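Worked example 3 (structure in, sequence out).
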């Protein structure tokens, strides 16, 4: 199917996402498998960044349209027909290309991801207060339990 051409499959670098057998298969079939850096997929995953937001919006609109026009809920038996409309609307070649461009994968642009984007999260609180105060219904139940 690839007519002898190499293929590229980008994956998360976490070792739970690939096996030795998978990598051997990829090598035998001319599939190059570069891994995103560990703890960085939030920056590099174009689908999350560009595709899923429009898909979610489109899905909501198509579901609402279906339910308004048919007066029926989306269930297993009609899900694919409704979802496929949202899928076709959101997963356009333009959006897919934009996903790779936004993350600097294609065309390759290492400057898209900045050092600030890769910096560890800042701790917003370093103090905790335990035990946490319980809402009044919990106190009431605990009081009843203590009586027995």
């Amino acid at each position: 199917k690839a007519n002898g051409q190499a293929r590229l499959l980008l994956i998360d670098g976490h070792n739970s996402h690939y096996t030795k057998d998978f990598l051997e298969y990829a090598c035998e079939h001319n599939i190059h498998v570069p891994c995103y850096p560990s703890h960085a997929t939030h920056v590099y995953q174009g689908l999350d960044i560009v595709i899923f937001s429009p898909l979610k919006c489109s899905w909501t609109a198509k579901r609402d349209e279906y339910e308004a026009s048919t007066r029926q809920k989306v269930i297993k038996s009609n899900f694919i027909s409704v979802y496929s409309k949202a899928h076709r609307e959101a997963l356009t070649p333009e959006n897919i290309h934009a996903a790779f461009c936004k993350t600097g994968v294609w065309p390759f642009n290492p400057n898209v991801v900045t050092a600030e984007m890769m910096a560890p999260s800042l701790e917003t609180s370093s103090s905790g207060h335990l035990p946490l105060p319980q809402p009044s219904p919990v106190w009431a139940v605990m009081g009843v339990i203590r009586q027995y």
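Notes: Residues 37-120 form one domain. The mean pLDDT is 84.
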